[in-house]
Write a structure and sequence with these properties.
two-stranded antiparallel sheet, mainly alpha, single chain, about 70 residues
């Protein structure tokens, strides 16, 4: 399935949470990350939550994580 991987979107935020080894916490930004309104889990559609998890899973499956 093709996901919208735009910066700040649900897939991007899931992938970023995985990269930084943060816990899963579905969310996204309406436009750019931290420069627009954040949409939290309780306000997300089922499809948006699935997109977030797909991004997180892609990050986990790649094995790439930030080295601190």
């Amino acid at each position: 399935m093709g996901y919208n991987t735009r910066h700040g979107g649900a897939w991007d935020r899931g992938n970023a949470d995985s990269w930084y080894r943060r816990a899963r916490c579905p969310h996204y930004f309406k436009k750019g990350t931290l420069t627009s309104e954040e949409v939290k889990f309780e306000d997300m559609t089922v499809e948006e939550v699935q997109e977030y998890h797909a991004g997180y899973d892609a990050g986990e499956n790649s094995g790439d994580h930030k080295e601190w």
